[in-house]
Amino acid sequence: MIIAKVLLTKTIESLGSVGEVVDVADGYARNCLFPKRLAAAPTEHNIARYAKERAAHAAAIEEREEKARRLRDVLANRTLVFVRKAHDDDRLYGSVRAEDIVSKIEEEIGEHIEVSRLQMEHSIETLGPHAVTIGLYKEIAVEVRVRVDGEASLKETSLKEE
After folding, report:
1. Each residue of 13-36: pLDDT tens digit?
2. Which of 2, 58, 61, 142 is least enclosed, having the fewest CB within 10 Å?
């Protein structure tokens, strides 16, 4: 196999980020990367041309990581409370789905999180405390506390307060 050095003009998850010079198979470079303009020849001119984009890409990654850390710190100290109707044996009539959790976070904090970032095997179907892990960015994750209260218990506490 003949190896070719190419300068990436776009970030490719399995190869590297924009502005990096990487080794790939000659056929892959010639038949895929060059025609799709994902890579260029690593000349001095091209390296200088993509240096600015590489710096911008690195700054964007750093900004995303910082945003994920801030969001992790906010979510780590928060409990999301849902009120649902439940049977006598604490099973919910409906359930609390990943979409519900994402919309609650957006409502309370103002940050949008993709549903695919939540790590839930199935929706929450019982009253009480639960934990949901959210992968925010690469290795940055947070475990969010979710509490599901029954509507009857909410009415009882509001009557006691009056």
Report:
1. 889 999 999 999 999 999 999 999
2. 2
pTM of the model: 0.71
Which residues, at least 6 apart from 18, have a Cβ–Cβ distance to it below 8 Å? 8, 9, 10, 11, 50, 53, 54, 57
Q: Is the pLDDT of residue 156 over 60?
A: no
Asked whether 85 and 94 are in contact (CB, 8 A), the reply is yes
Quote the DSSP letter at residue 86.
Answer: B
Q: What domains are there in the chain, each with its CATH number? A: 3-62 (3.40.5.10), 78-161 (3.10.430.100)
Q: Which two tokens stand for residue 51?
A: 């240096």
CA distance to 15, 35, 47, 66, per residue, from 1 (Å): 18, 20, 25, 41
